[in-house]
């Protein structure tokens, strides 16, 4: 069998070439800035811009959860129900990135997307989004991604097990996958009022779209993986998707595996592993292929140089920023004030290596 | 000026080692206070300044499309000059210092920013942030002292060559951005050491030439062409705006370290320097400019040079707020907080340039009455050999 490389239509390369030339001319006029820097003043959501979104509305769901309706930039690609999006938002002037499940009701949202956020106690970003976000705010976006997606055609019988804000990707699915015929949803929340989308879920149940089992943990205690079999007798016949705290998901995985149903269970962990910063740790420089042990009082710069890494460096006292490198994952401590900086995968937080010590395992992009 | 260590009355002789460490501790606390309070209002500030700059530059360039019409030329040139000053001073200089890196905005970050200046950001960051800010006012280490082309210290022997110093200082001021580019390249030293073929130098020189090419193409080709029949007048406007910006930034920078009374330090005095001693050197080696809020913004808050040198990575909009506390610290420890209005500081700096262009003591001892005989002495020192110079210098200093 021969394969052919798909050929772009002839009009397109000419057009692209023309556009490239125009762009280069425009750059000649705007240098050292880019034409985009000026266009962003006028139209930050245009095609070709960095992907952003404008918050159009904030709807309160419960006392600590809210749905943000976001108009994404022109380059936003359609997502599948159940996927999540990384959103970059300025909290106290600092850009913070977090991932949230998309809850958009696709046919009814006027080309907007929505995410639903539950404020975590002490969570800087979630509390900001739920309690202090104003319509009109620009946020930064990545394209939607995620594997928590139902296949097409849909399985005949489906079970969702969710807890807390774990309902959000499932709500995205329930709103858009009208091809689901036999659905059971077991949802756990502290009380009836705390159920995010409570009214909508109960309405769906009343309309016969799903069987809803609510577990209110304030009165009934935590959801027990083993007890789900009692609530859902035909559990073995159902393809199951579960989203919630790590503890619940681990219990479910264990239980499903014991029942020989491991391949019927799909889980989504929506909160990153909790990072416990310690004193010192293993520092990995992925690109230069070096791994070293650094203690909590030695600047990463010094430790890396000791280990033979050719580090960028400058004043070595934290003022010149000649040594800044992206921390891909991990935690570092500012030796001057003890302040911690943490990074989750994808963050690439830039840190000054000359005044930062490892405070746990660190993965540095260098 | 004479290095602090060689002065007959050392202005820090009254400070004990403990005092110096206490000063350091207090400054660390002030620094931490600002860091703890950094937030949304600061982020809004820098974004606002960037926004104003972009709109002002865009508007001014639009007005200059009609630069053949004299009022448009005047308005456009003033607007563009102010825009360029804002871009270099409050925006570029401070972002490249990493003052806004804490916002984690990749578009306003010391590692990604590029500015409207002949010198590429990366090279400037090395010579400015690393060398100048680390070795501030240390003779032989801080090349900002005279940019390697000036006599900045009485201890440097006078040579007839230095007579031209005021002239080339002024030429350097007019074309300051190119002077900075050459200086960041260490062009003088490279030529002196015959290292112009060094591949590393060549790569850096190429980067500078590429940057200058783009800058020149923008101001002297692209925008004039866009103006059509007003090609020449737009070119003249852009040239004028660049000169205005250069003269302004040069003046501000002269005011920072060059006025009379600002201290310099001997090379060996910084061996084993503690954090407190480093702070003290920054305190004594910098001078402020007093004035209005607009003036502070147009100087990129380098009018708070003392505060900037103590905390080069704190957001510039916070310097004014901590200045009274810094001043109080100076007072309590009996140190001279050097601050004066812009014209006074500029005059003081130029007075020093002129004074040092002449043999030590010449300017101080010249009066209208002895002018003829002083001129004869100067003539002899200029035309005579080193021996004559040394003999006459002794007489002048006596």
TrEMBL record, chain A:
Pfam families: FAD_binding_6 (PF00970), Fer2 (PF00111), NAD_binding_1 (PF00175). Residues 48-151 form the FAD-binding FR-type domain. InterPro entries: 2Fe-2S_ferredoxin-like_sf, 2Fe-2S_ferredoxin-type, Beta-grasp_dom_sf, Cbr1-like_FAD-bd_dom, FAD-bd_FR_type, FNR_nucleotide-bd, MRET, OxRdtase_FAD/NAD-bd. It comes from the Bacteria. GO terms for molecular function: 2 iron, 2 sulfur cluster binding; metal ion binding; oxidoreductase activity. The keyword Flavoprotein applies. Its cofactor is FAD. SUPFAM superfamilies: 2Fe-2S ferredoxin-like (SSF54292), Ferredoxin reductase-like, C-terminal NADP-linked domain (SSF52343), Riboflavin synthase domain-like (SSF63380). Residues 281-366 form the 2Fe-2S ferredoxin-type domain. Keywords: 2Fe-2S, FAD, Flavoprotein, Iron, Iron-sulfur, Metal-binding, Oxidoreductase. PROSITE patterns: 2FE2S_FER_2, FAD_FR. CDD domains: fer2 (cd00207), FNR_iron_sulfur_binding_2 (cd06216). This is Ferredoxin-NADP reductase.
Automatic annotation (TrEMBL), chain B:
One of its GO terms (molecular function) is oxidoreductase activity, acting on paired donors, with oxidation of a pair of donors resulting in the reduction of molecular oxygen to two molecules of water. GO terms for biological process: lipid biosynthetic process. Coiled coil: none annotated. Residues 72-339 form the Fatty acid desaturase domain. InterPro entries: FA_desaturase_dom (IPR005804), Fatty_acid_desaturase (IPR012171). It holds the Pfam family FA_desaturase. It comes from the Bacteria. One of its GO terms (cellular component) is membrane. This is Linoleoyl-CoA desaturase. It comes from Geodermatophilus ruber.
